[in-house]
Amino acid sequence: VKDIGICAIDIYFPQTYVNQSELEKYDKVSNGKYTIGLGQNNMSFVGDREDIVSMAMTSVQMMMSKYSIDYSSIGRLEVGTETIIDKSKSVKSSLMSLFQERGNTSIEGVDTLNACYGGTNALFNSLQWIESSYWDGRYALVVTGDIAVYSKGAARPTGGAGVVTMLIGPNATLVFDQFLRGTHMENVHDFYKPDLSIEYPYVDGKLSIECYLRALDKCYLEYKKRFETTTTSTFSMESFDYVCFHSPYNRLVQKSYARLIYNDFLQNPNNPKYQDLLPFKHISTGKDSYINSKLDQITLKLSLDDFKRKVNPSTLLSKECGNSYCGSVYSGILSLLSNVNDLNNKKVLIFSYGSGLAASLFSLRINNSNSLFKTNDIGRISNIKERLLNRVKTSPEEFSRILDIREKSHQMSGARTPIDTLDYVSPGTFYLDKIDDKLIRHYKIK
Ligand code: ACO
């Protein structure tokens, strides 16, 4: 089997969003804190009419119909999410209703849970299945995303929502580089959800940023090791045309690309283009190098032109929809395909981070020559720019009211119908109709 990777990709994001500069005023924080300080434009959210199952169903059905994929051609279905509505039943099982009604019940795969990294694990499993002796010739489907909500306060503007679906197979458009992966995992408590009675995480914001950047450093070194055993060239950011990051908020993505440039400098400190960084050589991966505004200033300036060219095209969806946790980095890939026309043979580096923590740096090459769908087709079919423009902007008061409804609804028990109306659910979208006396959730399409 040749050229295994992503053959098609699309995203479902909700109809409603709140504007970040309006949210700044409502939250009485200084002008620019969310829009410049965090780098975010808008944020997607849902009330209690949508949950992770309804969003995943919408995302899968949209992919299958837009690309006219036969339901029987799927042999593996993996879900990556941290939006938990059942301690036992996987979202994958709920998605089976779409397949069983069309006669396909022979589908491997269940859910993977680890903060924002579940989708990456689901993707890796699917790639490895196709490479293995267990593969039966069919496609895999990876469904990944979340509803990210935080309690009131500093973290709330870094929420978001969206579910990405990817069709994985041979002769792909986005072909993953075999063997080239750098992984770093450790046990930390930067972000976790120990209290199942509330939807919100326990989060140590500053620690999570430090963990994210440290994981990036470690993955850089691991990837570099593998890169340099398989090629004769030296590894640096010059080896790639584009870089996609997991994006909790855009400013962290800017800092992360700058951090990769800092890593390039540490590998090659005598290169004259890095001379402004020489005073920062000794701190390298020390604690004070992760939150250091002087170092940030220099690396951000040094990397700015490259950032605009190599990273910015992949940031559209995360700036507009916010953090979709497991979906975030893959919405970055889709943004890239929607923003750049001539991608053939381009090399893309990808950084996936999930708190707790699990992180990987991996890469792909774009193959428009003998793939079924070209990157331009995928960009056109996903139509994200027009869909983003057609959303409904709600006021921060309404956003706050709806999150209060979600919170209340989450704490209710027993048979119930959701509190929210169907006003914000767009036509063709699955929604939660009711929860019956056995606590089984029932869905309908609007
Ligand atoms: N104009 C321009 N910039 C501003 C303004 C302003 N008016 N006000 C503040 N800023 C800047 C700050 O200087 C800061 O920049 P810096 O990061 O370069 O220092 C930035 O905006 C953020 O301001 P802080 O005061 O540091 O923000 P705060 O502590 O209130 O919250 C945080 C930010 C920690 C990211 C919070 O939103 C959070 O906890 N989010 C959830 C955790 C998260 O997303 N972690 C990332 C990795 S893990 C994951 O994916 C979930």
Key features of this structure:
21% strand; 3-stranded mixed β-sheet; 9-stranded mixed β-sheet; HMG_CoA_synthase_euk; binds acetyl coenzyme *A; alpha/beta; Peroxisomal Thiolase, Chain A, domain 1; 446 residues
The CATH superfamily name is Thiolase/Chalcone synthase
Name of the top-level CATH class: Alpha Beta
Topology pattern, helix = H, strand = E = EEHHEHEHEHEEEEEHEHHHHEEHHEHEE
User: What spatial order of strands do you see in the largest sheet?
Assistant: 5-4-6-7-1-8-13-12-11
| Rg over alpha carbons | 21 Å
Count, helices: 13
- End-to-end Cα distance, whole Å, is 41 Å
Number of strands: 16
Task: Tell me the major beta sheet.
Answer: 9 strands, mixed
Which small compounds were modeled alongside the protein? acetyl coenzyme *A
The structure class reads alpha/beta
Mean pLDDT: 97
Strand fraction: 15-25%
Shape: globular
Low-confidence blocks of residues: none
Write up this protein.
Catalyzes the condensation of acetyl-CoA with acetoacetyl-CoA to form HMG-CoA. InterPro entries: HMG_CoA_synt_C_dom, HMG_CoA_synth_N, HMG_CoA_synthase_euk, Thiolase-like. Pfam families: HMG_CoA_synt_C, HMG_CoA_synt_N. This protein has 13 helices and 16 strands. The chain has 446 residues and is of the alpha/beta class. It has one domain (5-445): Peroxisomal Thiolase, Chain A, domain 1. Strand 15 (430-435) and strand 16 form a beta hairpin. The model has no long low-confidence stretch (mean pLDDT 97). It binds acetyl coenzyme *A.
